[in-house]
Amino acid sequence: TNNFQQIDINNFDANKEIDLLHASATGIDGSTVPVVNLLFKHTLSNISIKLNKHSDNADDNITVKQVYLLGLNTIGSYQWKKEGETITSAWTVDYSQTPVNKGSTFDTELNTTYKDFLTDVLVIPQTVDPDNHPVVLIVVYDFTINSSETIKDNILYANLPASPAWEIGKKITYQATIN
User: Fold this and answer.
1) Which of 17, 18, 65, 130 is at a distance of 20 to 30 A from 41, taking alpha carbons?
2) Residue 151 neighbours by CB under 8 Å, 6+ apart
3) Residue 2's Cα: distance from chain center in Å?
4) Does pLDDT of 2 surpass 60?
């Protein structure tokens, strides 16, 4: 038997929006197995953004125009290794590559219930480092006060915190309230 197995994927680009999964065989307990079960797991992280408006602004209109994540590091290398019964997997982010921005335009009015804006943004698992490798949430919105005066193109921005880490297979949702 081979007690050592390794898979290396170099220069993977999560910006191409291709999900990367790996599988392990389960239920193999002998040499003649009629069915081999493969349990697939995600190797990327999945980021989503939800927005709402504060209840103090219930009578005002807030219309979201754009939502972006700036500074995403999307290039990295993945290694899966099995030695004996021990399995390890890890990503290495290539910080020498230029970070990318992900987002979209909208024309969506907020209420006090959270609404999805960016969903299922695939990223290389990593720890967000606000000092050295920041990821910034940008929201552009129009604000109408008492149905009379509209202030256009307001910009909300926030550095995403270092915690939680963007781990292999994890989905992380950031929720922001506009006040």
Assistant:
1) 130
2) 142, 143, 144, 145
3) 36
4) no
Note the pLDDT tens digit of each residue in 110-122. 999 999 999 999 9
CB atoms within 10 A of CB 91: 22
Supply the Cα-derived Rg of the chain in whole angstroms. Answer: 21
Enter the tokens of residue 37.
Answer: 């079960």
Cα distance from N-terminal residue to C-terminal residue, the chain: 62
Neighbours of 135 (CB within 10 A): 24
Check: CB of residue 55 under 8 Å from CB of residue 112. Answer: yes
Residue 21 CB coordination number (10 Å): 11
What are the Cα distances from residue 135, in Å, to 37, 68, 100, 119, 153?
Answer: 38, 10, 10, 16, 21
Helix/strand/coil for 14: helix
DSSP 115-154: EEEEEEEEE--B--BTTTB--EEEEEEEEEETTTEEEEEE
